[in-house]
Every structure is written in structure tokens, then in C-alpha cells.
Design goal:
Elements: E1 6-10, E2 15-19, E3 50-55, E4 58-63, H1 73-78, H2 84-94, H3 108-117, H4 137-144, H5 148-153, E5 156-160, H6 165-178, E6 183-186, E7 198-200, E8 203-204, H7 207-224, H8 234-249, E9 253-257, E10 275-278, H9 286-289, H10 293-300, E11 310-312, H11 317-330, E12 334-336, H12 357-374, H13 391-399, E13 407-410, H14 412-417, E14 422-426, H15 432-447, H16 452-462, E15 476-483, H17 491-504, E16 511-514, H18 538-553, E17 578-579, E18 583-585, H19 589-602, E19 606-613, H20 616-626
Parallel strand pairs: 5-9, 5-10, 6-9, 10-11, 11-12, 14-19, 15-16, 15-19, 16-18
Antiparallel strand pairs: 1-2, 3-4, 6-7, 7-8, 13-14, 17-18
Helix pairs in contact: 6-12, 6-13, 7-8, 10-11, 15-17, 17-18
GO molecular function: ATP binding; metal ion binding; tetrahydrofolylpolyglutamate synthase activity
Family: Belongs to the folylpolyglutamate synthase family.
Catalytic activity: (6S)-5,6,7,8-tetrahydrofolyl-(gamma-L-Glu)(n) + L-glutamate + ATP = (6S)-5,6,7,8-tetrahydrofolyl-(gamma-L-Glu)(n+1) + ADP + phosphate + H(+)
Length: 628
């Protein structure tokens, strides 16, 4: 806690100092936050500076404040724009909380997350009884932030879809970056940190830049909004922030993933993208988008713009009919991009796992080729090349990365004790169609782990082959399901698809674990909150009962095959679990992870292959726990 402060001006250097000892002969300079590479903000030479941020034809004056360490961001923002004496008086005034101290507990980033969380509405997504949900109000926000011209100048690739749109955007960003362009990528949702949504040249935006742009947007919107034009909701604020970031960073190309639907999505304020894409369509968010594929396709087609070329992938007939009709009405040349031929990659693998990614990669290649052509950067029509791809495209496809989609992660604790004995297969599938794709990927990925060479390498690592007398230790692969889905989704459409697809590939789960999401939907942050001992498990019990009914109806299943040595509920840490032979409901995700770790330690002949799916929130929570 800071009891008192005094700002001391250095007449020779033109800088300011802060000290808690007025008579100190060597005060420490006020700390400036580290600047990221290519930051638009330069280190100030005096206590107040007007910095010009040039973004295309747009120039904005920004007052860059001194940052005083160990006090909250609100204090630092309050002293921005004042002289040293005025800043001191403001800090002194804010410190009078009865004890004459300033709260230093929250970091600037934590304060930003708290502010962002306040924008999350706890209403149903289908509830339209709110002024802030009107689409046209987005243009009011853009005017408040003076972003009209910067958005018009952006060279945008815009992608909608039910599944695969995030992967398509990731491939497209990687391709264009490897072609030598400065890239900005906006995706959703994030898994661990909200900064994942904003990528600059392939990397998440650094914390320093994020905070500068965040408070720049936040403070201006707070000043200019009203009851008639309230603060934007959570996703809309993030989309506006993305536009601000990409404009200020002067990227060459912006790749935007639609958040929800298309027609009324916050990213759809871009009126003249360079090219549009629609990934695979299926049933999701039906409470908002409609109950038929035709209705859903109509919403997704809302991103199509007159005169702007567009691509899609092979779609169900009902969806394709609507897409073609909407494109015809707008005079859009809608083309179907075929899945990428693996032979075009010159024996290189895609950076994203799963056979379904060749579909997304094919769409990304079409989008990037068209973007390059329309922007005058290439003279060769890559779309007609059937024998090879440019080296830049191959490198981009091979190095693309996206967490939580067909991702394989060994548990960091067990890996140090018994390599390969506890491996998580994470995929945020949450629609019926994506469950099929996820199941196929999981089955193929785990079968690759069944070959004898793995056991041999494991035994060598464990020292079991030190002499010819040692019998090899055979590690039996055991598949476990770790599942949750949001209550707005129909588990009757998800769990049967998952089980049937796995069964058709010869994979049977020995145990299914159901847990509530640790992250709460109305709070943003990077740390896992403490598990709630009074958490409502009624939804997880519903999922468990459905799973048990599927187990009973599964033909050819040996009930005894579900037995495990370590049963939930045998110790204090596992009390309160709803346990059966083939499934368990845990009160928290950490409890389920601990059970898996203990089970591996007690079953020396078993390797656990854990599929984590049903919710990207669940996948993000799991990554926090199992990665270093």
C-alpha cells in the first residue's frame, strides 16, 4: 500500500520521479511499461506527450500517461493528461479511503478483465429486449471511436460458418504471413487468455499493447455512451477493440472470424471485404439462427457483399440452395472450394490435426489466392494449380496452430513420472456434425498409439530392457471421455453421435467423466477460480443418465470391461461424486484430473487416452490444468 507520494520534477532531464521519502537524494524514476516490438507508443521524454498514431488515412491524438507501479490502473488512468502537481493531487485524493492508502492488490490487467466482465450479459442470447443488441448501434460506437475510415481502409478476409471457420482463418493468416504480409487475426472464443483473440503476425497481442488499446477504447466509450446508446456488450466491445488494434498496428491484411451467425454479427460492420468465406454449416445456436439448415445458412450468408467474391465448401443440399440463392440476389460469384489434395503439400503435414482440416485448408487456399489476386500481389492463378502449391502456401499450412482443436497434450505431471501414460486429446466440438469429426480424429489418433513400437520405446525409457531377462511391460491403452456441454445444447444430439462414431471405429470408452465448467460465463480471467462446493450438478447428472442409457443399448459391449482399479468415491477427495461402473460425475474439473492422475499411478499397466470435448470452455479449463 502507498501511504504517501510526492512527484519531484527533474529540471535537467525533464522527467518526473516518485518516491515515498521526500528527502531521498536519489529517487527512482517513474516506471514505464516495456514496449512491444513495433509498438505505436514511444517512450515519453516528459510527463505528458501527445502521440500521433497514423493508421492509413487516419490520425488520432493519444495522451500517453505515466504508469506508476503497484497502484491500480484506474489511478494511473486518472493522472493521465495532468501536470506532475495535478497528478499528485489526483493520486492523493484517490488514496483517501479512510486509512489514507491506495489499493494495490489488483494488477492493471486484472482490472481490465474486471471491466470487461461487466459487459457480459446474463440474459439468454435469444433475448432481444435491449437497446445494446441493435445492429445499427454498432455504427454509433465506430463513430465514437473514430474508426469509420480505418475500417474502410482495411483489407479484410471475412469468414463465417458453423464449424471450421476458426481453423480456416488460422490457415489463411498463416499463409498470408508466410507470403510476407503483416497480419491481424481476430477469432473467438479464447481458451485461457482473452488476448488469444487478437493475433498480430501470428502471435497473441502482448499485455502492454492490449492494455493501452483496451483503456483507449473503454474510456472513450464510457465518456460518450448513454442510456439511449449504452456500453457495447462483451463480444461487440472485443470486435471494436480488434478494429482499433489492427488499425493502429497498420497491418496489411485483417482476417475476421464471425462470432455468431453472420448478418448481425459485430464483425459484419465491414462493408467492403476483399473476399468472403463460409465454412461447413450445421445445427448450432438454433435458438438464435433458426431450426433448419436453410434458416441457418441464410444468417451465415449475411456476410456476403455485392461484388465481393465468395467461397464455400461442399454443403448439405438444403444449406447450399440458400447460399446460392442469396449470392445470386447480391450478384456474388460464389464458388465451391474443394478439400485440399494432400499430395500438393510435398509430403508435409498440415499444422492442424485431423482429416477434416483438409476441407478447411482448401477453403483457406482459395481465400488467400483471391485476396492476393484482388490486391495485385500475384500474377499466377493459384486456384487453377492442380499439381503444386507455392512454397509460401505450404509453409503457412504446415505451421498454422490453434489451441483446442484436435490438440494432443500429455499431462505435465504424469509425463515426468511415466511418459505417455496420461494423454489428453482436446477438441472443442459442440455440434452434432463436429462430434462426428471429433470422434473420427480421436479414433485414428489413438490407434496410431497402439503399435508395438510405442511399448518398446516406453520400456527402454523405463529401463525394463536393461537385460535380456526382463519381460517387456505392455501398456494397455484405455479410452476415457471427459465431457460437458452448455445447457442450451441438446445432449441427445451430441452424445449418441459421439458414441456411435467411436464404436464404428472400434473404440469404446471405459469410463465417462462429467464435470461442470470451472470458468464462469460472466467472468473473464486467466486464472482458474476456486471450485464451488455448492455447485449445481443437476445438468451433469442429466448427461450421466443419458450416457448410461446409451451404454445399456450399445450392442456387443462387455460390462466388465468398464472396471477400473481406482474407483471414484473411495477417498475424501472424491466424496460426493455420483459414481457408477461406467461413468462418474465430479464436482469440479480439478477433482476429475486428480482422479485420472491417481488412477494412472495405481494402474501401472494402463495408459489413459482422455478425450476432452463438448465445450471450448471445458477445453480451455483443462489446458490450464494439464499444461506447464
Amino acid at each position: 500500500m502507498i501511504k504517501s507520494v510526492e512527484i519531484i520534477n527533474n529540471a535537467f532531464r525533464g522527467t518526473s520521479y516518485i518516491t515515498d521519502n521526500p528527502i531521498s537524494p536519489h529517487p527512482s524514476p517513474i516506471h514505464q511499461p516495456p514496449l512491444c516490438i513495433s509498438s505505436p507508443f514511444s517512450s515519453p521524454a516528459s510527463h505528458q506527450h501527445n502521440l500521433s498514431i497514423h493508421t492509413h488515412k487516419y490520425t488520432h491524438k493519444y495522451v500517453y500517461p505515466y504508469i506508476i507501479p503497484n497502484i491500480s490502473a484506474s489511478v494511473n488512468r486518472t493522472i493521465a493528461g495532468f501536470s506532475s502537481r495535478e497528478a499528485f493531487l489526483r493520486v492523493e485524493e484517490m488514496s483517501k479511503d479512510g486509512n489514507g492508502s491506495v489499493d494495490t492488490m489488483r494488477s492493471p490487467y486484472e482490472e481490465a478483465m474486471e471491466a470487461l466482465s461487466s459487459l457480459i450479459t446474463k440474459r439468454s442470447r435469444a433475448d432481444n429486449n435491449n437497446n445494446g443488441d441493435r445492429f445499427d448501434i454498432l455504427f454509433d460506437y465506430i463513430k465514437m471511436l473514430e474508426l469509420e475510415e480505418p475500417i474502410k481502409q482495411m483489407k479484410v478476409v471475412h469468414v463465417a460458418g458453423t464449424k471450421g471457420k476458426g481453423s480456416t482463418c488460422t490457415f489463411a493468416e498463416s499463409i498470408l504471413r508466410n507470403c510476407g504480409f503483416q497480419t491481424g487475426l481476430f477469432t473467438s472464443p479464447h481458451l485461457i487468455d482473452v488476448r488469444e483473440r487478437f493475433r498480430l503476425n501470428g502471435s497473441d497481442i502482448c499485455e502492454e499493447k492490449f492494455l493501452e488499446y483496451f483503456w483507449w477504447c473503454w474510456d472513450r466509450l464510457k465518456e460518450r455512451t448513454s442510456n439511449e446508446v449504452p456500453m457495447p456488450t462483451y463480444f461487440r466491445f472485443l470486435a471494436l477493440l480488434a478494429f482499433k488494434i489492427f488499425a493502429a498496428e497498420q497491418v496489411d491484411v485483417v482476417i475476421l472470424e464471425v462470432g455468431l451467425g453472420g448478418k448481425f454479427d459485430a464483425t459484419n460492420v465491414v462493408e467492403s471485404p476483399v473476399v468472403c468465406g463460409i465454412a461447413s454449416l450445421g445445427y448450432d445456436h438454433m435458438e438464435i439462427l433458426g431450426n433448419t439448415l436453410g434458416q441457418i445458412a441464410g444468417e451465415k450468408a449475411g456476410i456476403l457483399k455485392s461484388g465481393v467474391p465468395a467461397f464455400t465448401v461442399p454443403q448439405p443440399e438444403e444449406a447450399m440452395t440458400v447460399l446460392v440463392q442469396k449470392a445470386s440476389e447480391l450478384g456474388v460469384n460464389l464458388q465451391v472450394a474443394d478439400p485440399l489434395d494432400p499430395s500438393l503439400l510435398s509430403d508435409v503435414h498440415l499444422g492442424l490435426e485431423g482429416e477434416h482440416q483438409y476441407l478447411n485448408a482448401g477453403l483457406a487456399v482459395a481465400l488467400c489466392s483471391t485476396w492476393l489476386q484482388r490486391e495485385g500481389h500475384v500474377g499466377i492463378n493459384y486456384l487453377n494449380q492442380n499439381t503444386s502449391l507455392p512454397e509460401e502456401f505450404i509453409r503457412g499450412l504446415a505451421t498454422a496452430s490453434l489451441q483446442g482443436r484436435a490438440q494432443i497434450v500429455p499431462d505435465h505431471l504424469i509425463e515426468s513420472e511415466s511418459p505417455g501414460d496420461l494423454v489428453f486429446y482436446l477438441d472443442g466440438a459442440h455440434s452434432p456434425e463436429s462430434m462426428d469429426v471429433c470422434a473420427k480424429w480421436f479414433c485414428l489418433a489413438t490407434k496410431e498409439d497402439h503399435n508395438p513400437s510405442y511399448n518398446q520405446s516406453y520400456n527402454i525409457a523405463k529401463g525394463s530392457h536393461e537385460s535380456g531377462n526382463s519381460a517387456p511391460l505392455v501398456k494397455n491403452p484405455t479410452q476415457i471421455l471427459l465431457f460437458n456441454c452448455m445447457s442450451v445444447r441438446d445432449p441427445q444430439l451430441l452424445l449418441p453421435r459421439l458414441m456411435n462414431a467411436c464404436t464404428s471405429h472400434g473404440v469404446h470408452f471405459k469410463k465417462a467423466l462429467f464435470v461442470p465448467n470451472t470458468s464462469v460465463y460472466y467472468k473473464v480471467g486467466t486464472a482458474l477460480p476456486t471450485a464451488d462446493a455448492q455447485v449445481d450438478l443437476s445438468w451433469q447428472i442429466t448427461l450421466q443418465r443419458l450416457w448410461e442409457s446409451l451404454i445399456v443399448g450399445e450392442k456387443g459391449r462387455d460390462p466388465k470391461s468398464t472396471e477400473l482399479t481406482c474407483e471414484a468415491g473411495n477417498n475424501d477427495a472424491e466424496k460426493g461424486c455420483h459414481n457408477s461402473e461406467s461413468s462418474t460425475v465430479f464436482t469440479s474439473l480439478p477433482q476429475a484430473i486428480n482422479w485420472l492422475r491417481n488412477s494412472v499411478r495405481k494402474n501401472q499397466s494402463v495408459r489413459f487416452q482422455v478425450l476432452v470435448t463438448g465445450s471450448l470452455h471445458l477445453v480451455g479449463d483443462a489446458l490450464r490444468l494439464i499444461k506447464k
